[in-house]
Amino acid sequence: MNSRTTAADYVEDVSPGRGALPPRARYASSDAVSLSLNGGWRLRLSATADAEDDSFAAPGYDAGDWAQVSVPGHWVLQGDGAFGAPAYTNHLYPFPVDPPYVPTENPTGDHLRVFDLPEDWPAPAGGDDAVLRFDGVESCARVWLNGTDIGEFKGSRLPHELAVGALLKPAGNVLAVRVHQWSAGSYLEDQDQWWLPGIFRDVTLLHRPAGCAGDFFVHASYDHVTGEGTLRVDSEAEGRVTVPELGIDVATGEPVTLPVVPWSAETPRLYDGVLATAGERVPLRVGFRTVALEDGLIKVNGKAVLFKGVNRHEWHPERGRALDADTMREDVLLMKRHNVNAVRTSHYPPHPAFLDLCDEYGLWVVDECDLETHGFVEQDWRDNPTDDERWTPALLDRAARMVERDKNHPSVVMWSLGNEAGTGRGLTAMADWIHSRDPARPVHYEGDHDCRDTDVYSRMYLPHTEVERAARGLDGGSLRRRQLPLILCEYAHAMGNGPGGIADYQALFERYDRLQGGFVWEWIDHGVRHPELGYAYGGDFGEELHDGNFVCDGLLFPDRTPSPGLTEYKKVIEPVRIEAGDADGTVRLTNRYDFADLSHLEFEFCHQVDGLPAGAHRLTVPPLAPGESAEVKLPEAPDGGGAEVQWSVRALLAEDGPWAGRGHEVAWAQGMVARRAPLPAATGVRPCVDGDRITLGPAVFDARTGVVRTIAGVGVRDLRLDVWRATTDNDDGAPWQSDTRYGLLWRELGLHRMRHRLVAVETDDDALVVRTRVAPAGREMGLRTAYRWTSDGTHVRLTVSVVPEGDWQVPLPRLGVRFGLDASSTDAVFWFGGGDEAYPDTRAASRDLLWDASIEDLQTPYVRPQENGARADVRWAELGGLRIEGEPEFWFTARPWTTERLDAARHLTDLVPGDTVWVNLDHAQHGIGSQSCGPGPLPQYALWAEPAEFSFVFSAQPSSG
Ligand code: GAL
């Protein structure tokens, strides 16, 4: 049989590559020179792996007519579409599953860069005194320097170094890199993200002087019983280790034990040190901490920690996974400012600079290997590389490249084998190797439900009930698994509006020791900036296979603006719990940090009268130790005299800190002191029928339909019952969900096209009553709805009564009224109630105050438009000349387009404000849940169709006269 062999056979070879040096610790030398090769490179793109020969790699080749791209970068995100396009799939391979083969159509980018050595580059000492380091190339690269083939490698988000000392010239060095989009390595890189080829991380030439440090391993442990740390630096090259602040000066390999301040994510104490070998000095940042599995819990420095984490993919809306230093810092600062204490580097080791930031600012890191083979699930995991020994060298190579690069980071507290790669011998081999190389860190992998290879029982998207069962030890599983803590490496799927129910998860995490928290999926929406669409998602580039906006499921919008989900998460995981105390007029404060006391915080207190803060005071709170509580007496509350009185306490940073300034709020709470008086009955005035109009106090109605036309002279359009919302990603649910997906059912039943049959328009001595039946075509069930209007001459009160009829098997999306106001006179809204977007199970961060916002500001820009922007607990709102008070409090939403337009839009750019502002006043909303990849709303947040009655009192907006 003949087989086709080409110069590009290595592309489909399962081996990790040829020519790369053994992996080693990542460090920046103090004195060895280096040269960044980032910048403009020449690019020639071809359609297949072997379309061009390697003559371009030879010195003297004229690439003058090639395009220019930036390195680091992905070529598909450069050149305005001239170099192909990104493609998004969740778990399906975008090519036939035929391992290790990849399509003949294999976009291949030949990259060229000519460079001179800087003047201070030491004269060649012969041999390997220089290495060329690639921090990340997707997915397979072959490298030539000055015409010599020096190797090829796979493992996109892992470093590779090649020895080049013997090849360097003082000037005119030609570096040629051929990058193939697809390779055997692609089978190991099936993460849920955009497929983005290119040299997307730094390229650096490093001088390696004789006697350089090479590889070294900093072991810095902490004994919480003695308060002492032990430092030992094992180094390939002998030398001395100094930490001046601690008076340490020891030989490499020699341990030293002495009192230290330990490192934790809350108190990231680092000691500057130096490793000096014969050939170079290497700065060290030493953090003393011990991670151990003890009593079935992951403990750091003797304490079980609670992970309040996020899953972070690397993402920038223009540069993809080519992240700059500022973006990485912004991620860390945003995490710290939102009370996040942990990050899983889903699903590959991040740019190394990110881990430096985690050490410095303090985040627990689960460092995950660049491995996912999820697409094999489609064939019941047949041929899965993680259970096929031919691939094991590649898996071990990936594990080693991660561990060796990142082992000296105190922030890394767990290694993760990868994600969604099935089970198999290859994974066991990785775990065994990691355990032996670094016994001081637990190993994580979610796919190992029996915990054969892992030190923590990890699951994703478990419903609350199952989390609780596991917490109580009722979930079964292997003995080993039952002896391990449970963490949710992914939960609370933040796609679109949501996630709902995180407060309920957190309550479980805090209640049960076995639960050590979780990591919200995920940190940021991977929207791609697009000239026409705003942000593009799957399918927007004409992909043959794609998973739509499933790639936009983050707590940050693509431009890193926090979404309401992040505000909610910040509140839910706040490190100080503030609640009403047992005694009247007191609050109880609980320190929920694992390590820090509260001395870095100051507390601000005020009473709010009808939402207006009445003077702020300092509240003296003892510097509680972790886990401690104290009850603190509040100053006397003012007499509201019928007004609503609330207390408010805020915990603020007392000093400027590394990640936020003094006054930054870390926790807050409000509580009720006196409720507002009931609204005026608004009765006494008779409806007056006058031809085709009915007048009732300040309101005028159409006598035939009973529909209100004006209130206090303000035109009101189409006021009627509304139950529909533009379904959220969580309403629609994921296709594989076995639970009922209400978003689909609602649409199937026709809740988006309810008809309003007028039954009667009745007037009596003090009321106008309009009776209707609201129901969808083709169905028997409906909502008998009565609108009862009364007035005292100045106010008009609407009481809506709803009685469901027929067999309602589904909850309602919402229940309330909607109407339109003239957009030209409705640009600002004032209200008393919750300030941020909230729904029944996303309302922890809803803070009652007086607010004002433009209509535009009230919209939450979910990348795929959907229901958004409701404000909870609104007592009153003023807009467009009207004041609206609610009894009880209501959910307020206003938008410059209809719900139907919102529902139909695919991108934000599809939404254009019209001449009407549409206002929803809702008595109730259905919860949000997390069903886009997890459980739906908990039963207590479902809005079942039941008899309901609610009122709104309308009058002229005072400020508009
Ligand atoms: C998980 C997976 C993630 C992501 C998420 C859904 O199964 O590990 O990578 O796909 O689901 O957004």
Automatic annotation (TrEMBL):
Q: In its keyword annotation, does this UniProt entry include Hydrolase?
A: yes
Mind telling me which InterPro entries this protein's record contains? B-gal_small/dom_5, Bact_Beta-galactosidase, Beta-gal/glucu_dom_sf, Gal_mutarotase_sf_dom, Galactose-bd-like_sf, GH, GH-type_carb-bd, Glyco_hydro_2
Every Beta galactosidase small chain/ domain range: 695-955
Lineage of the species this protein comes from: Bacteria, Bacillati, Actinomycetota, Actinomycetes, Kitasatosporales
- What family is reported? Belongs to the glycosyl hydrolase 2 family.
Q: Which reaction does it catalyse?
A: Hydrolysis of terminal non-reducing beta-D-galactose residues in beta-D-galactosides
Q: Name one GO molecular function term.
A: hydrolase activity
The protein depicted here goes by the name Beta-galactosidase
- Record EC number: 3.2.1.23
Any idea which UniProt keywords this protein has? Glycosidase, Hydrolase
Q: Where is this region: Disordered?
A: 1-22
Domain of life from the UniProt record: Bacteria
Q: Which Pfam families match?
A: Bgal_small_N, Glyco_hydro_2_C, Glyco_hydro_2_N, LacZ_4
Give a yes or no for keyword Thylakoid in this entry.
Answer: no
